């Protein structure tokens, strides 16, 4: 590796590592605040907050790393232009292709890492995070139920109110349970309820000495029943189709004929190449005229990234609903980026030097 390439790579690495660290810290802080608030409200077990935040950060790296690389290239090259170091490099007869080569050398391994994360790490993290969150978030886990308080599960609308809770035995004293259904709402009032199985896949509850109400939503055929002992198998929390797609292995998506699954697969497949193209595209965008600050180009740089990101999201939605054919599908964005990049490279090479004033 030649001197110019090593120098440019070292200049990019420092802001890249700093940006990844800062963005990760900000996202982790936001996620921690959100899940700690849920734990404080009694809807999430405190012991799993750290694990869930870890999975959420891993998922977010698919977006955070490309952003950090893109901004790092713009800032580092902008500084070189601002300090007229690019003028000195151009005066020594260095081809603009050397600059693209240097950025390619650092962007390629980052793009490969993002591709692997998107294809394999992200679905694994989604699956584990969902399973862990549901297991700890179940409304029948006495570890986070609070006495004399409406404990509401926002995922299924179920509400539990108990006058007293015995953590050791899992018994709820003087309990009121509301369970919402599509056609009927069910209300249970019991002297005691014992959580037999808090598993969110098949929650089981035993009630003693109480009254059960079945309320019809559209009609007036309500039912009332007195009971001495009752065993309830409550409806599990349903996993949304979108979450199932995000947690599905890439091989399962490839075998599926559903357009929404193919859109998710193409999203994962294009993350790596989009990361690489964004880093290379940052080179012509980073040009800063003399006597202007290194942040002078941040507005067009930000607009370019937002355009690529939202265009990718729109293409994913269009592929999912059939408005855009599977080919080019989401590959349309990398194809257009490649064409624009080739035009920029041809312009720079045609000038025979790196752009200066």
TrEMBL record:
Task: Indicate how the chain sits in the lipid bilayer.
Answer: Multi-pass membrane protein
Q: Name one GO biological process term.
A: transmembrane transport
Compartments annotated for it: namely: Cell inner membrane
Q: Has UniProt tagged this entry with the keyword Cell inner membrane?
A: yes
UniProt KW Transmembrane keyword? yes
| InterPro entries (UniProt xref) | LptF, LptG/LptF_permease
Q: Where are the transmembrane segments?
A: 12-32, 52-78, 99-120, 295-312, 324-345
Its quaternary organisation is:
Component of the lipopolysaccharide transport and assembly complex. The LptBFG transporter is composed of two ATP-binding proteins (LptB) and two transmembrane proteins (LptF and LptG).
Into which family does the record put it? Belongs to the LptF/LptG family.
Query: What protein name does the entry list?
Result: Lipopolysaccharide export system permease protein LptF
Organism, per UniProt?
Answer: Pseudomonas lutea
